[in-house]
Amino acid sequence: MHKFERPEPLDELIKAKKAYKGTISPEEAWNNFGKDGSRTKVRKQLEVVQNDLCAYCENSLENDGHIDHFKPKVDWKVTFEWDNLVVSCTHNDSCGGKKSKHYESYWINPYEEDPKELFIFRTNGKIKGTTTDANKIIEDFGLNSPRLRKKRSELLSFLTDEFLSDSDTLEYYKNIDYPMFPTAHKQIIDKISGE
Ligand SMILES: [Zn+2]
Question: Is the pLDDT of residue 66 over 80?
């Protein structure tokens, strides 16, 4: 997880928030919002910001992301609240699918708070929290699911002290934009380079 800067909301979202104020159920309003393509526009806007990665696990969305309500759609306000919308992957063992309609006050919305001090990434694919709440977030969001651990370890295991001991190699890998798990890559490289 890393912090994202939220762009200005699209007009479609502003209009929907006004139109559905206190009318039909949030679920119904959200379905209607999908029918004319507005929801797709909002999702695409967020996918650009998130570089086509899930906001929570940083795995590729694989063209299958969905808009996740960080806080569940209990009323029209949170349903169309720009600050409450993120794009998540669609797996059931992690992220939006895992947290489903739950919400906990200690969770970190990556558009609101910077989570960079909360998680330590290992080359074996595992994430460790630096606080009790961070460990609860890892559990609640399934960030150490076997699927994610395996994929992370496959992509991170080449980052070793030995491999990066050559300063040119290290410099090269420090300056890459990683298409997947960018926070994990950067953190491990920074650690090896002593930053
Ligand atoms: Zn995810």
Answer: yes
